[in-house]
Automatic annotation (TrEMBL):
InterPro entries: EXOC3/Sec6 (IPR010326), EXOC3/Sec6_C (IPR042532). One of its GO terms (biological process) is exocytosis. Pfam families: Sec6. This is Exocyst complex component 3-like protein. Its main location: cytoplasm. It comes from the Eukaryota. One of its GO terms (cellular component) is transport vesicle. Interacts with EXOC2, EXOC4 and EXOC5; may be part of the exocyst. It is found in: Cytoplasmic vesicle, Secretory vesicle. Belongs to the SEC6 family. It comes from Muntiacus reevesi (Reeves' muntjac). As part of the exocyst, may play a role in regulated exocytosis of insulin granules. The lineage of its organism: Eukaryota, Metazoa, Chordata, Craniata, Vertebrata. GO terms for molecular function: SNARE binding. Keywords: Cytoplasmic vesicle, Exocytosis.
Length: 739
């Protein structure tokens, strides 16, 4: 390419434009050149070498220009080659476009030709279909008769033959549909209902597997084989899978549940125990029958025994859940169900029998009763039993209360003690309810044990309330009770019997102290009975003590003789009371007599007129103390627990001849009886009749001297239970109780 041509191909640079970068580069180059020149030619001796520098720069400039020209020439040649290639590509594109236009025309011509041939193609397809129909026509004409024959086989329960006939018809249908391009012929409309009829017949046979295994095992085998063969069936038609195997298994389960847990077989009210007993016998027998008869009729993968066990377990579980959702069970049914579900069902008599194989194990399945079910049943059982126990105990108490009004004295045992079957009945009722729950679970036993203790405490409170009403009616005269005190003493024996036997309600697993509330109620009952007995004794003795002390009392022992006689007669019935209650009664009776004696002394009915009367009073106190001691010793009360010696201490106070020494005597009295008060001492000083104001003050001041002494061991309070009359104004001192 010559220079003229190259000049033509080179792009023309625009004129009149300024490039800021180029201008800046030129300025930098000029500055650098000036700096270099000024550095080189700064000295005059270097000017001589100017020609050398000029020639060197000229050579360098020429070299640079040559290199630049070479680069520009190479660039221009590359541009030329690219332009040529673009021209060649344009020509190729134009040729391809023309070829595509030709191909498009050819395709349009072919589409028109194919459209013209479409009727001919349809005629060919119809010809092939008619040819296939002409070949299948004899077989198609026999389809209605084959359908009828197959239905007859199904009705005759010839399942294998019916299934073979059905498969032949279905294969003919598939072959016909394949030749007709999926077109369904009306002649095959009856195959769907026919297949469903066979499936239902097979399902019904599977549902009666237990009965067929005993009566006609061949029929059961045929039904199972049909279901298994059909499970491997493939079809070219768009049909939903029949899944006869699953239908058979479902029918097996439904039939088994219907046999044992059908709606008509569920127990009615009061028939639960009988129903569970029937299941206890029937379920193991059903599993044994399944293993011996049904399992050989089915493929191994059916796992017939396991299927039977799981089905029976699930059906029983659902049946029990429905039972619990219904009306609330009675106590007996609740107990029976708990015991049966928790122990009998998994026990050796049923599902845990050694005669059953490992496939019958249901221990890994959900339990028959959930924890919520057990909680509900236990709560129901405890509530029902509690109501029954409360009713039984109330009837027993009502019968006992009726006995209290009899004309005869209470019954006695062979030892002569008052006796009643009431304590034994109460404890037997409670103990049997606790003992029987051990057959179910520890939790139920704990619940019933707590309920029994609660009901026993309630019974003791009711017993105490009945005693109060009994005593009130007797004292008011509303009811005539011929043997009031003997029946009170009989109830004390009842309390003793309950106290001595209540330990039977404390099993080994019960924590110590659980009987504390019951024991507290028994103690309260004992105290109440003793109080009622002592009130009866007091009612007889109070009229006698109204004349004591008196002038007659000073001179004659008749008053106390009457007291002793009445007391001895009253206490004769104590011999029918068992120990240790009889000792308690005697001690309380003796204490009551002494307290009443002290109360009479404190009333100020007698004031001694001189030394002789004081001596008589002191001797009377000594004689009365000895008489009382002798009385209760004769009744069997130990001397160490008697309170009559307090009269001897008072005797010393009355027998003192020097009133100035009363302070010492009062201090000694305070040491023996720390509960003696100033009012008691003042009343005794009034009885002496010879104590001046100053002597009284001195005697009373000895009560306040020193710390309060502690009571002697084993001695109970006396004076604190003895009321004193209000002191007269003449005897009121600033330090007295009325100050």
């Amino acid at each position: 390419m010559d220079s003229a041509a190259r000049d033509k191909t080179q792009p023309a640079l625009p004129t009149g434009l300024e490039w800021p970068e180029q201008e800046r580069a030129e300025q930098l180059a000029r500055g650098a050149a000036l700096k270099w020149a000024s550095g080189i030619f700064y000295r005059p001796e270097q000017l001589a070498r100017l020609g050398q520098y000029r020639s060197r720069e000229v050579q360098r400039t020429c070299s640079l220009e040559a290199r630049i020209k070479s680069v520009v020439q190479s660039y221009l040649e590359g541009v030329k080659t690219g332009v040529w290639q673009l021209a060649q590509a344009l020509e190729a594109v134009r040729g391809t476009r023309e070829a595509l236009d030709q191909a498009r025309g050819l395709l349009q011509d072919m589409a028109e030709a194919a459209q013209n041939l479409e009727p001919l193609r349809e005629q060919v397809v119809q010809h092939k279909q008619l040819q296939a129909l002409s070949q299948l026509l004899p077989r198609l004409r026999a389809v209605p008769a084959a359908v009828t024959h197959t239905q007859t086989l199904i009705d005759a329960q010839r399942f294998l033959e019916a299934y073979v006939s059905l498969r032949e018809l279905e294969q003919l249908q598939e072959e016909t549909c394949a030749h007709l391009g999926g077109l369904e012929l009306p002649v095959f409309e009856g195959l769907g209902p026919l297949a469903e009829a066979l499936g239902q017949a097979v399902e019904a046979a599977a549902g009666a597997a237990g009965q067929l295994a005993r009566e006609d095992p061949a029929l059961l085998v045929a039904a199972v084989r049909v279901a298994e063969v059909d499970a491997g069936r493939t079809t070219s038609l768009e049909q939903a899978p029949r899944d006869w195997r699953q239908r058979c298994l479902h029918a097996l389960q439904q039939g088994l549940e219907q046999v044992h847990f059908g709606t008509s077989l569920q127990p009615g009210p009061g028939a639960l125990a009988e129903w569970l007993e029937a299941l206890r016998v029937a379920l193991p027998a059903e599993l044994a029958m399944a293993e011996a008869l049904v399992a050989p009729c089915c493929p191994p993968h059916y796992k017939v025994v396991q299927l039977w066990a799981h089905t029976l377990h699930g059906g029983l579980r659902r049946c029990l859940q429905q039972l619990l959702e219904g009306p609330e069970l009675e106590a007996a049914d609740t107990f029976t169900l708990l015991h049966w579900a928790l122990h009998v069902y998994q026990g050796p008599e049923m599902m845990g029998s050694l005669e059953l194989g490992p496939e019958a194990d249901v221990s890994d399945l959900e339990p028959l009763l959930t924890l919520e079910n057990i909680e509900q049943l236990e709560a129901t059982f405890v509530a029902k039993v509690q109501a029954n126990v409360a009713q039984w105990l109330q009837k027993a108490l009502d019968g006992e209360v009726v006995e209290w009004g009899r004309e005869q004295e209470p019954d006695t045992d062979l030892s002569g003690f008052y006796h009643s079957p009431l304590p034994a009945i109460v404890l037997q009722i409670l103990e049997e309810n606790i003992r029987v729950t051990r057959m179910v679970s520890v939790s139920l036993q704990r619940r019933v044990h707590g309920m029994a203790l609660s009901e026993l405490s309630a019974f003791l409170r009711s017993f105490s309330d009945a005693l109060i009403r009994f005593s009130r009616d007797h004292l008011r005269g509303d009811a005539v009770v011929p043997h009031y005190v003997p029946y009170l003493l009989a109830t004390l024996n009842h309390q003793l019997a309950l106290s001595s036997s209540v330990s039977v309600l404390q099993p080994e697993w019960v924590v110590p102290g659980v009987l504390a509330p019951v024991e507290a109620e028994l103690d309260k009952l004992q105290k109440r009975i003793c109080r009622l007995v002592l009130e009866a004794l007091l009612a007889e003795l109070q009229p006698l003590f109204a004349a004591l002390p008196s002038r007659r009392w000073l001179s004659s022992p008749e008053l106390l003789d009457d007291v002793c006689e009445r007391t001895a007669r009253f206490c004769q019935n104590f011999r029918h009371v068992r120990n240790p209650a009889v000792q308690l009664l005697l001690a309380e009776a003796e204490r009551t007599v002494v307290l009443q004696y002290l109360h009479a002394l404190m009333q100020g009915r007698l004031v001694c007129r001189g030394v002789d009367e004081r001596t008589q009073a002191a001797e009377r106190l000594q004689h009365d103390a000895a008489q009382l001691q002798e009385l209760f010793l004769g009744l069997g009360l130990e001397e160490s627990v008697q309170c009559a010696p307090v009269l001897l201490a008072l005797r010393e106070l009355l027998n003192l001849h020097d009133p100035t020494l009363l302070g010492l005597e009062v201090a000694g009295l305070r040491q023996q009886f720390p509960d003696v008060s100033e009012d008691h001492v003042s009343a005794l000083l009034d009885l002496r009749g010879d104590v001046s104001r100053e002597q009284r003050l001195a005697a009373l001041s000895s009560l306040r001297a020193g710390p309060q002494p502690s009571p002697p061991a084993g001695r109970r309070a006396l004076f604190s239970l003895v009321p004193t009359p209000a002191p007269s104004l003449a005897s009121c001192f600033p330090s007295g109780s009325c100050a």
